[in-house]
Amino acid sequence: MASETPVPAPPLTPFIRTTADGAHYLAGCRCTACGEIFVGERRVCAACCARGGLEAVRLADTGRVYAFTIVERSFPGVKTPFVDVTVDLDDGAHIKGTLEGVEPSLEGVRFDMPVRLAWREATPVNTPGKAYLTYLFLPA
Ligand SMILES: [Zn+2]
To answer: Does residue 72 sit in helix, strand or coil?
Structure first.
């Protein structure tokens, strides 16, 4: 009897990448003119407007909470409350995400708290069986 290899869930966004050995990371780009780092691919630098000088980089997997909000109401079926964050990654990129592993309250989260990237296979509330790979943040 042949064994079946589970098919990995597809990434939620194009900037979620997986190495040949199965490790996940966030892909970004760095402007060779000014050094600014962005999430995902770009053709024009949003900081200095240089064109075509952006090189692919693997983004940092640690950072600090720049801003957050406690989400009390969401789409039907999505469990609330949860914490939505904007994170300044340690390499200078900025990214939004969900912070877990904390009390979803104003007392449970603080600005500038260190966080780290984590990965999960999630399933949309209304389409079970359509798992996807996504990222989240945890306290570091
Ligand atoms: Zn630039």
So the answer is: coil
